[in-house]
UniProtKB/TrEMBL annotation:
Example GO BP: galactose metabolic process
Organism: Alistipes communis
Boundaries of every Galactokinase N-terminal domain copy: 9-56
Listed name of the protein: Galactokinase
Statement: the UniProt record of this protein carries the keyword Kinase: yes
Listed InterPro entries: Galactokinase (IPR000705), Galactokinase_CS (IPR019741), GalKase_N (IPR019539), GHMP_kinase_C_dom (IPR013750), GHMP_kinase_C_sf (IPR036554), GHMP_kinase_N_dom (IPR006204), GHMP_knse_ATP-bd_CS (IPR006203), Mevalonate/galactokinase (IPR006206)
Gene Ontology cellular component terms for the protein in this record: cytosol
Family that this chain belongs to: Belongs to the GHMP kinase family. GalK subfamily.
A matching Pfam family: GalKase_gal_bdg
Length: 377
């Protein structure tokens, strides 16, 4: 449906046709807030994302239409041309970051639409950045490698959207592979595909429908906490730090910084435990580590919220193998690993109890692991 909507909108606005490109949102099984700490993450691309039709227009201006917002923006390609529309800054930022790397691009017309739930922690912004980075690289034959495409998206967030994110979201959106999760070492950028087909289990997201805004945010403050502790330890990142070394400097740092670092150090170990457990088919251990991650995100990192904690508690009561909040925090989804025979009862119970408590149902998104950025023939 998205493809036909985008095609129709493009032809209506620009009286021509272009080339279709798409990129994916992502889930992250485990490894939260570790990417900007140089640690490991374990994401996968999903079967919802952003689709855009694009055509060079022979000028030095971009004309863009956001189908879902029914919003139009037009802007140039110089630094002083930054658009006022927040959604358009993602496209503008990608263009500028390509130019900073020596890529020669011109103006273009585009219409885009997405089916990544906004604010659900599935990284609709990274899907948008990756779609345009991949498309412009292809259309203008720039020869930029996939890692640099991911970095272009990350730099767009940093320099044009005010979020000091790590590399995970853009990496997953660019490198995603159907049927596989990916373990990425965010320090060395080495990665490995792990086939993911949990026979007897389903992976499902429950969306609290609580929206969060990360700009200027608590997210950036947590990153600063981690950077302060790493500096005290004489490291660039928290990656590789131990609890023994952290405890040795406990009296020299704030309690808040201590707890932030304690979560990150524990999370690095949990990612590796989950990778090992999946290779053994040991889903009980996978689930235990997911619950432990949520506890750390809620109590030590303090990025959860009442609605997310409530859904994780319901999951535990229903015998769900593993559950945790997913994403930057302050709203969004829980990710749940559920045995097939418990699935229907869990979903029904979660909907009922959540509605009784908060006055609306959570949205349910079954997870299908899919491909990342690509051209649609």
């Amino acid at each position: 449906m998205t493809q036909s909507n985008v095609r129709a909108a493009f032809e209506r606005h620009f009286n021509t046709h272009g080339t279709l490109y798409a990129s994916a949102g992502r889930i992250n099984l485990i490894g939260e807030h570790t990417d900007y700490n140089g640690g490991f993450v374990f994401p996968g691309a999903v079967d919802c994302g952003i689709t855009a039709m694009i055509r060079p227009n022979g000028t030095d201006r971009v004309r863009a239409y956001a189908v879902d917002l029914d919003s139009y923006a037009e802007f140039g390609l110089r630094e002083e041309d930054k658009p006022s529309e927040s959604w358009a800054r993602y496209i503008f930022g990608v263009c500028r970051e390509i130019q900073k790397r020596g890529g020669r691009i011109g103006g273009f017309d585009t219409a885009f639409s997405g089916d990544v739930p906004l604010g659900a922690g599935m990284s609709s912004s990274a899907a948008l950045e990756s779609t345009f980075a991949f498309a412009l690289n292809d259309l203008y034959a720039l020869g930029i490698d996939k890692f640099e495409l991911a970095r272009i998206g990350q730099s767009t967030e940093h320099n044009y959207c005010g979020v000091k994110c790590g590399i995970m979201d853009q990496f997953a959106s660019v490198f995603g592979k159907k049927g596989c999760l990916m373990r990425l070492d965010c320090r060395s950028m080495e990665f490995e595909y792990f086939p993911f087909d949990p026979v007897g289990y389903k992976l499902v997201l429950l969306d609290t429908v609580v929206k969060h805004e990360l700009v200027g945010s608590p997210y950036n403050r947590r990153r600063e906490s981690c950077e302060r502790v790493a500096k005290m330890l004489g490291q660039e990142f928290l990656r590789g730090a131990t609890m023994e070394r952290l405890d040795a400097i406990r009296d020299e740092i704030s309690d808040e910084d201590y707890r932030r670092a304690r979560f990150v150090i524990g999370e690095e170990r949990r990612v590796l435990d989950v990778c090992d457990a999946l290779q053994r088919g040991d889903y009980a251990t996978v689930g235990e580590r997911m619950y432990a991650t949520h506890e750390g995100l809620s109590k030590d990192y303090e990025v959860s919220c009442e609605e997310l904690d409530f859904l994780v508690d319901v999951a535990r009561e229903c015998g769900v193998t593993g559950a945790r909040m997913m994403g930057g925090g302050f709203g969004g989804c829980t990710i749940n690993l559920v045995k097939d025979d418990l699935f229907a009862d869990f979903i029904a119970t979660a909907k009922r109890k959540f509605t009784e408590r908060f006055g609306h149902e959570p949205k349910v998104y079954p997870v299908v692991i899919s491909d990342g950025a690509h051209k649609i023939d």
